[in-house]
Amino acid sequence: MLLDRAQHSSGEFVFPKIERLDDVQRKHRQLAELAAVWECDGCLLRDPANINWLTSGMSRRPGVGESALALYVGEDTRAVLCDNTESLAIFDEDLGGLGFSLKQRPWMEPREVLLEEICSTRRLLLDAPLRLAREGIVRPGIFTELRCQLSPIERERLRRLGAKVTRAVEATARTLEQGQTENEIAGQLAYRLLRQNVQPVRLRAVADGRLNRYRNWERSELPCTAWVTLSACGMADGLHVTATRSVVLGPGCEQLLIQYEQVGLVAATAIHFSRAGESFGDVWKRVRRIYEKIGIPNEWLANDQAELIGYRPCEESLLPDSVQTLEEQTALHWHPQVGGCLMGDSVLVTEGDSEVITSPGDWPLMTIEVRGIPVTLPDVLIRWPQ
Questions:
Q1: Under 8 Å CB-to-CB from 326, ≥6 apart: which residues?
Q2: 25: containing domain
Q3: Which of 46, 123, 152, 158 has the greatest number of beta carbons closer than 10 A?
Q4: What's the pLDDT tens digit per position in 326-348?
Q5: Number of Cβ atoms within 10 Å of the Cβ of 365
């Protein structure tokens, strides 16, 4: 038999939550049907995003162990392909009781030996090119579409993750001190995320309007004196959420406060119209019109504005000419910017009003009406004068 059942440690057998098992089985059926459509014997997944998606909760990071783990999905078989240094932890901590078999190799054996055993007699649907799969069909975009359709368990996880990321960002903003470097502030933010079992993916601590000149600035040894923008992308259960907040610590921020009000108008419009059935191109036209109304028609050209999120921080960038229709139960990260002011929140697309999953907690609020409907956004936290 090619695939042996995984052997667990002497501890008790792991019984997963039934919702997670159901989610894995549903995704297995999706992949089996997809393979049949492409006249393939199964699917081979090596992209960490797809591994996290199929397992409904692993958190493999790109570039971390991706060369050592793969998943094979046949019509009635799903198997983990890995070396002996990882197998015990994978099944004890992540996949016990989820119906995965184990195909294991010694750590000193080339990975290609195990992959060739899987590929040599099978025609496979692949999420990444593989020289050994001579009959393989590479279609990464298909897997992106599957990942972006979030199941009920995934949507609930996003809500919990959004609350954790927001809590970490806001707590850091309330306690950081004038004179600290951007790196020191980002370190505090990372600590708060890790305490909540959230993996930091991208952390930004940008002081004193540097975003006006460097739109993708993250952090440095430079100190903060008056204004800090904090942004965190965190991962848990394989899913990603980003939240952004700004705080005033000193004088001289009058222009930044004006820009923050302007970017709030853009963000409120974007969030309000992020509804199921809307064409992103139509949403974008409304967003662009706001830039024009506030007298900065070309500001949007300086940086990207939004992307689909899920098992990657950016599943797909959303562009002005996108013809894509927003689908219910997908997730977006909107992050418009005006000058040195960035506003960013993560949103679940629903049939009715969009759901902000990084809504402010203990934080000042601003409310902007869009077509008579109030949209609540995070305001600037003013901590000066003390």
A1: 274, 275, 276, 277, 278, 279, 280, 283, 332, 349
A2: 4-148
A3: 158
A4: 999 899 999 999 999 999 999 99
A5: 10
Q: Residue 13 pLDDT > 60, yes or no?
A: no
Q: Reduced to 3 states, what is the DSSP secondary structure of residue 66? A: coil
Least confident of 121-135, 223-237, 345-359: 121-135
CATH number of the domain encompassing residue 118: 3.40.350.10
Contact at 8 Å (CB) between 306 and 332? yes
**Of 125, 148, 171, which one is at a domain's C-terminal end?**
148
Does residue 2 register a pLDDT over 50? no
Question: Distance between CA 254 and CA 341 in Å, rounded?
Answer: 12
Q: Indicate the pLDDT class of residue 249, thresholds 50, 70 and 90.
A: very high
Q: What is each CA distance from 281 to 195, 200, 222, 278, 285, in whole angstroms?
A: 40, 31, 39, 8, 6
Could you check whether the bond before residue 336 is cis, i.e. omega within 30 degrees of 0?
Answer: no
Q: In the chain, pLDDT over 70 holds for what percent of residues? A: 94
pTM above 0.85, yes or no: yes
Residues 54 and 179 in one domain: no
Give residue 258's identity as a one-letter amino acid code: I
**What number of CA atoms fall less than 13 Å from residue 284's CA on the CB side?**
19
